[in-house]
User: What shape does this take?
Amino acid sequence: AAPPHTRSFVFVDALDEVTTLLEDTGHQIEPWQLLRNTNVIGETGHSDYGAVFREFVDRIGSDLSNRATVLITGDARSNYRPPGSAAFAELARACRSVFWLNPEPRDQWGQHDSDVEAYLPHCAAAFEVRTLEQLEAAIERIL
Assistant: This one.
């Protein structure tokens, strides 16, 4: 079997792969460098999960298989834009599982411009991850 391969992407209202950038820096990169050295800012610079999920499926979907696991880290706030539920469902069907790590308190999920509830049915699990302890617990459950 082929060894596991990890690819990394970042987004705001556009998507960019950062696998090589992370490898070239030994994964020692500051968040501002990701913004400066990528094309993640699209037309507005405000998060647009629906557009990003559609772009991800269009660009990367054919690379996914039942061996792939997708981890998404974000608050699912799409600034009242369409959530892209169909694209997200398509992404989830194309891989083994999707896990969501959300930095917002769980009691704020689904409020105001949060579209997380549109994505949850397609996730194997979703976790509130605001602390290292929560991150550790999420990783243990994922593994």
Q: What stands out?
A: The chain is about 35% helix and 15% strand. The radius of gyration is 15 Å. The beta strands are 9-11, 15-17, 69-73, 97-102, 125-128.
